[in-house]
Each structure stands twice: as structure tokens, then as C-alpha cells.
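Propose amino acids for all 95 sites.
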């Protein structure tokens, strides 16, 4: 069980790190955009950043959960994870 837990958490952490890098790339690409368009994109990126932060928080909670509480914390983490994944896969959802 402990090895499966560690593997599960490590996979989530790695994906979250990749998404963090993707957000940084998006931010860098939008810097030269026109002011009006950049403002709209900044709001969208901030919404993505907020979702990323919440997902990261859930992962931290998962890592800190006792063995008894881990399954219930895992369920809330997966809900946050699916929400963020849906936004990443369909960027129109965060506009």
C-alpha cells in the first residue's frame, strides 16, 4: 500500500510540475501580445494559475494525510485534478 501511495503521489507531482512549466510558457508567450488581448489572456492565465494552486494544495494535503484518511483525501484530490485536467485539455473552459 505504501509503495502504491508513493507512486500515485509522485505521478501527480510530476504532472503538476509539467503543468506549471506549461503555465510559465503561456505567460511568456503572451507578454508581447496587444494590451487588450493580453488583459483577457492574463485573466485566463490567472484562473489557470489558481486552479493549479488549488490542485497543488490538494496534493500537499494528500501527502500529509494519515493512512486512515488517505482514501478520503485522495477523492477530493482527484476531483480537483479532474477539474484542472479538463481546463488544460480544453482551454476554452477557463475564459
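Proposal:
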Amino acid at each position: 500500500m505504501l509503495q502504491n501511495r508513493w507512486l500515485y503521489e509522485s505521478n501527480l507531482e510530476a504532472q503538476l510540475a509539467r503543468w506549471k512549466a506549461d503555465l510559465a510558457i503561456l505567460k511568456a508567450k503572451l507578454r508581447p501580445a496587444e494590451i487588450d488581448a493580453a488583459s483577457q489572456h492574463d485573466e485566463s492565465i490567472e484562473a489557470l494559475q489558481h486552479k493549479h494552486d488549488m490542485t497543488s494544495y490538494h496534493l500537499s494535503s494528500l501527502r500529509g494525510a494519515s493512512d486512515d484518511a488517505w482514501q478520503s483525501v485522495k477523492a477530493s484530490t482527484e476531483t480537483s485534478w479532474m477539474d484542472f485536467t479538463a481546463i488544460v485539455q480544453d482551454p476554452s473552459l477557463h475564459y
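The radius of gyration is 15 Å. The helical segments are 2-30, 35-64, 70-89.
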